[in-house]
Write a structure and sequence with these properties.
This protein has 5 helices and 32 strands. The chain is mainly beta. Bound molecules: copper (II) ion (CU). Copper (II) ion (CU) binds next to loops.
Length: 460
């Protein structure tokens, strides 16, 4: 796809075009940040190495700490043999810099360097990751190690804390498994489907499996700000830290109207939570998945108080349903100007594909008409999940407000990903305030690659 072709018909200023850097990148070039997409081998546990592709050969990639409203220039070199690109998840920037080829953002061919220039906003915990299609190649896309924290500093105050820690969930060594088994394990009364699913051998927080790498060292009385990110390609997780609570102050980087303390938190693919944890229960604990099987795969980290020792302790939290509405206002959201009802279905294998395909109102990407919006208007998207899977729905380049889950109405909870539970319905509202093509999709790599995407286009 040529840049000119991508730009045609878009309301995007030429200055927002990412530019390719000719020839080898010299040290005198004025990029603020340089990222290199490169193959690497990571020791995620003692003697356990995974081969992957990551930014600057590290997982997570370098934490990018930017200032809201201050333009930045980021040079990305693709040192792999597959075209790739970087998506700046949660930022309201131009379509061509956003890093989704469906919006017209250019791919970075092997050996090439692209400069992304944009003005980051809004403030909060964002992240960056590849937006390449993986399909049946489980080394590509978000199955690889291409992700990092993108922290946008701005006016909003997270309050006082003594220590900050960024923890990203990742699953490794994916392989195929029949979907029927995983679906059966989840629910006995859902229709059986035909395709494969993806399962993993290992899981980590950042680079390390539970019990490997350094523990998180804390002192009694400390307030620790934890930024938790689910950077998994396909797995939603539930996390807990026995003996402690998470006071959730922001979701997807946006302060929540009703901060509350919870014993466990759900983190669907691509979601972020900022939480304050008061260290008031000395010991050596496991912060990790509530599933024993996942902790055994490595999904956890040891939290060690100063002066304490011994075997890390896990205790199951009391069962509770995850409920976004507890962090929202219980008043109704503002009425939208227009509503789109979008029903999601699993249509099974298409053309002998190994994986099931997905539809939005009976159409799959790319054979799906865009939704149309007009600048300045407020839209409601009603996501109706007609399938037995969870779908973390992501809207690019905009922030939405959750207005309804099932029958519960709410307002004030601003996110860019919302997990839609099986057979549930969720309404999200957004203002069309950032002209340019906008992708909406399920963030589960296996779903987005098999049809679960739609474009939103601005019309005059
Ligand atoms: Cu999905």
């Amino acid at each position: 796809m040529s840049l000119a072709g991508a730009a045609a018909g878009h309301h995007v200023l030429a200055s927002t075009l990412p530019t390719f850097i000719p020839g080898p990148v010299s040290g005198s070039s004025h990029a603020d940040v340089r990222l290199r997409i490169e193959a690497c081998s990571l020791e995620i546990g003692k003697g356990i190495n995974v081969k992957t592709v990551a930014y600057n050969g590290q997982v997570p990639g370098p934490t990018l700490r930017l200032t809201e409203g201050k333009p930045v220039s980021i040079e990305v070199t693709n040192a792999t043999s597959s075209p790739d690109l970087v998506h700046w998840h949660g930022l309201a920037i131009g379509s061509l810099s956003d890093g989704a080829m469906e919006e017209g953002s250019p791919m970075i061919e092997p050996g090439k360097t692209l400069r992304y220039s944009f003005t980051p906003r809004p403030s909060g915990t964002r992240w960056y990751h590849t937006h390449a299609v993986a399909g049946a190649n489980l080394t590509l896309g978000t199955y690889s190690g291409q992700f990092g924290f993108l922290l946008i500093d701005g006016a909003h105050d997270l309050g006082y804390y003594d220590q900050e820690v960024n923890l990203a969930v990742r699953h490794w060594e994916p392989s195929f498994a029949p979907m029927v088994e995983t679906m059966r394990a989840q629910s006995a009364n859902l229709p059986l489907t035909t395709g494969s699913d993806v399962v993993y051998r290992y899981a980590t927080f950042n680079q390390h499996m539970l019990g490997h790498g350094e523990p998180l060292r804390v002192k009694q009385g400390q307030r620790v700000l934890m930024r938790l990110l689910n950077a998994s390609a396909t797995e939603n997780v539930v996390l807990a830290l026995p003996g402690h609570t998470f006071k959730i102050i922001a979701m997807d980087g946006n302060p929540v109207p009703n901060p509350r303390s919870v014993e466990m938190l759900s983190l669907a693919v691509a979601e972020r939570v900022d939480a304050i944890v008061e260290m008031n229960n000395p010991g050596v604990w496991i912060l990790g998945s509530t599933l024993e099987k996942s902790r055994a795969m490595g999904l956890g980290i040891v939290v060690e108080y100063a002066g304490q020792s011994g075997k890390p302790v896990w205790r199951d939290p009391s069962p509770a349903d995850w409920d976004y509405s507890q962090f929202a206002q219980r008043t109704k959201a503002k009425e939208p100007d227009e509503t789109y009802v979008l029903t999601f279905r699993d249509i099974g294998s298409v053309n002998g594909s190994q994986f099931d395909s997905w539809t939005i109102n009976n159409k799959s990407w790319p054979d799906i008409e865009p939704l149309h919006v007009r600048q300045g208007k407020r839209y409601r998207l009603i996501f109706r999940n007609g399938s037995g899977d969870q779908h973390p729905m992501h809207l690019h380049r905009h922030t939405f407000e959750i207005s309804k889950i099932g029958k519960t109405e709410m307002s004030g909870l601003l996110k860019d990903v919302v997990n839609v539970m099986p057979l549930d319905s969720v309404a999200v509202d957004f203002v069309a305030d950032n002209p340019g093509d906008t992708l909406m999709h399920c963030h589960q790599q296996l779903h987005m690659d098999y049809g679960f995407m739609q474009l939103i286009k601005y019309i005059d």
